[in-house]
Amino acid sequence: MNLALKSPEPRPGILDIAAYVPGRERAPGVAKVHKLSSNETPLGASPRAIEAFQRTAFNLERYPDGQARVLKEAIAAVHGLNPANILCGNGSDELLGLLCHTYLGPGDEGIVTEHGFLVYKIQITAAGGTPVTVREADARVDVDAILAAVTERTKIVFIANPANPTGTYIPVDEVRRLHARLSAGVLLVLDAAYAEYVRRNDYEAGIELVSSNCNVVMTRTFSKIHGLAGLRIGWMYAPRQVVEAVDRVRGPFNLNAPAIAAGAAIRDQAFLAAAVEHNLVWLARVSEALTAIGLRITPSVTNFVLIHFPETGAKSAEEADAFLTGRGFILRAVSAYGFPNALRMTIGSQEANEGVIAALTEFMGRK
Ligand SMILES: Cc1ncc(COP(=O)(O)O)c(C=O)c1O
């Protein structure tokens, strides 16, 4: 027997990970497809970001700036932060992973919530830690459930605020209450990927909490409202000690040059305002229209909405998914998130939104 034919064993736990499945993008046989499965914006990227991206085409032989300075400075200027407290990542996904690899090892626990973003669990496990899942209350992060699950082994707590795929949020007072009961040795990660969309007086993404504590991190992304998912840009705002620790673990050039240049166009705030306005109008219209045809919606503050299908009859989420896909509307099945009979719909263009409403009206009206 040729022993070399056997591959080395991955570390314990790695093969238990259910690999992340991205939103579908194909509807075979359908001419026009509306991809509403990954919470991407229907408005594309800012023209300034596209111009900056194009300009980098003539310097591709050069390594990017490993510190992503112009990007950090642009983020810092827009949000009123110190660039020294910012670290950029290849998408916020990378930062979530880096945080786990920096703070977790075998025997350590990371707390995630019942319907939380799946990357947390994957990265906790990949780092050798143990994910501990706590229940949510009515598809909303439950602070008391998290606090009840904290042990002396807990090293990290992840919450998405607002959350994906539910679209719900918890007010800043609740986040503060959670933080106040965690010991200094526990890192609280506030994943605010959808923060820009939220229009609620009692919501905060986490800047104040990070600024005044040593164990809170806020992560953000350029993939959603900024329309740059293809470039993979995320950032975190964190205490200096956390930035300095994670900086040692990341790849030296984890952001590429076109991403750094395009991301620095975050200063185009007019583009952002138009995206917020489009979403506000269509989130309300889509939610109302789907409710009116008898579907239950989880009220959302984001750019997507969770649609629950009837438990009985031939109108399950799976059937709706097939029906919509046949008409070119690709939503996201969310069984892996604990919602076997729901679909998540990203708020799209007017054409896409009206198309989904019309298709689901037909679907619900079928005998
Ligand atoms: C809650 C949440 N966090 C993080 C991410 C990852 O975003 P990025 O594209 O920056 O890796 C997503 C993307 O779907 C998300 O929904």
From TrEMBL:
<dbReference type="InterPro" id="IPR015421">
    <property type="entry name" value="PyrdxlP-dep_Trfase_major"/>
</dbReference>
<comment type="subunit">
    <text>Homodimer.</text>
</comment>
<keyword id="KW-0028">Amino-acid biosynthesis</keyword>
<dbReference type="InterPro" id="IPR005861">
    <property type="entry name" value="HisP_aminotrans"/>
</dbReference>
<dbReference type="InterPro" id="IPR004839">
    <property type="entry name" value="Aminotransferase_I/II_large"/>
</dbReference>
<dbReference type="GO" id="GO:0030170">
    <property type="term" value="F:pyridoxal phosphate binding"/>
</dbReference>
<dbReference type="InterPro" id="IPR015422">
    <property type="entry name" value="PyrdxlP-dep_Trfase_small"/>
</dbReference>
<keyword id="KW-0808">Transferase</keyword>
<comment type="pathway">
    <text>Amino-acid biosynthesis; L-histidine biosynthesis; L-histidine from 5-phospho-alpha-D-ribose 1-diphosphate: step 7/9.</text>
</comment>
<dbReference type="GO" id="GO:0004400">
    <property type="term" value="F:histidinol-phosphate transaminase activity"/>
</dbReference>
<keyword id="KW-0032">Aminotransferase</keyword>
<dbReference type="InterPro" id="IPR015424">
    <property type="entry name" value="PyrdxlP-dep_Trfase"/>
</dbReference>
<dbReference type="Pfam" id="PF00155">
    <property type="entry name" value="Aminotran_1_2"/>
</dbReference>
<dbReference type="GO" id="GO:0000105">
    <property type="term" value="P:L-histidine biosynthetic process"/>
</dbReference>
<comment type="similarity">
    <text>Belongs to the class-II pyridoxal-phosphate-dependent aminotransferase family. Histidinol-phosphate aminotransferase subfamily.</text>
</comment>
<feature type="modified residue" description="N6-(pyridoxal phosphate)lysine">
    <location>
        <position position="224"/>
    </location>
</feature>
<keyword id="KW-0368">Histidine biosynthesis</keyword>
<dbReference type="InterPro" id="IPR050106">
    <property type="entry name" value="HistidinolP_aminotransfase"/>
</dbReference>
<keyword id="KW-0663">Pyridoxal phosphate</keyword>
<protein>
    <recommendedName>
        <fullName>Histidinol-phosphate aminotransferase</fullName>
        <ecNumber>2.6.1.9</ecNumber>
    </recommendedName>
</protein>
<feature type="domain" description="Aminotransferase class I/classII large">
    <location>
        <begin position="32"/>
        <end position="360"/>
    </location>
</feature>
